[in-house]
Amino acid sequence: MVDNQLLEYLENIISPERKERFIDILENRTNFITVAIEDVFQMHNTSAVVRSCDAFGVQTAHLIESKYSERLDKNIAMGAEQWVDTPRYATTAECIDALREKRYKIIATSPHTDSFLLDDFVIDEKIALFFGTERSGLSEEVLDKADGYVKVPMVGFSESLNISVSAAVILQDLTVKLKKTNFPWQLSEDEKLRIRLDWTKKSIKSIDAILCRYHKGG
């Protein structure tokens, strides 16, 4: 439950323009589509995927770090890590189980023989898009447990794209498709308030001191 009084108190500290910017951006945010990044070795690739999530309005990027920990490069993400939720998981199974509990359909991005071409992929329920390491792709665990597969159509000599490029192409296409549906793709009001509070806190210098003063009634 969001402390609305605290949110109002903190929003009086930031500029009205920044407050309105947060509200406007949240109107285009979604958790109907989410992303999971599995054991990506190159930090800049993980960071670039997070940046694409921010750019195309996907609020959450789930980071699986069973092999390589803390792959988020803040310089490459260019501040996107402040605006995108990035829950972390020690294993792939933990991430898949958590997403299934939230009723996501697990979609592996892979040149799998059963993959839908991106142009033909239909969003019919909440989806979690899994992206794998640039070295060997997604693990067999994800491929075995996936409910479906999607791939970017290509007509050149290259058989695959860099993960960050693939994520940007897929997210741009699917978020446009999603917003043309009648699904309740926008964040709930509670989600919007929670994120507004989080973003507002991150926008204020000396936030710890200000929160201390607030809670003391100063």
| CATH H-level superfamily title | SPOUT methyltransferase, trefoil knot domain
Approximate strand percentage:
5-15%
- Gross geometry: elongated
The Rg value, from CA coordinates, equals 19 Å
CATH class: Alpha Beta
**Average pLDDT, all residues:** 89
Number of strands: 7
Describe this structure in words.
The protein is α/β, with parallel strands linked by helices. The protein has ten helices and seven strands. Strands 3-2-1-6-4-7-5 form a seven-stranded parallel beta sheet, sandwiched between helices. The radius of gyration is 19 Å and the shape is elongated. The protein starts with a helix and ends with a helix.
Task: Summarize this structure briefly.
The chain has helices spanning 4-11, 16-26, 43-56, 74-77, 80-83, 92-101, 140-145, 163-178, 189-202, 207-215, and strands at 33-38, 61-64, 88-89, 105-109, 116-117, 127-131, 148-151. With 218 residues, the chain is an alpha/beta fold. The chain has a single domain (31-185), classed as SPOUT methyltransferase, trefoil knot domain (Alpha/beta knot), CATH 3.40.1280.
